[in-house]
Amino acid sequence: MNVVAKVLVDSFRLLKKEPKLFLPKLLIAFLYGLGMLFTAALFKELLPALNPYSSSISPLLLNAVLLQSVLLLAFLFLVMILDVLFNASYSAMLEDFFKKRSPSILNAFKTALSKFFVIVPAAILSLLVFLLLSLPFVFLASLALLENNFNLFFLTAFIVLVLNLLVTIAFYSLYPVSIFERRNFFGVLKSSAFISKRKFSEVFQLSLFSLFISAFGILFAFLAQRIEFLLLFVAFRLLTAILATYQIVLNPVFYLEVVKGK
Question: Cβ distance 106 to 96 under 8 Å?
Answer without folding.
Answer: no
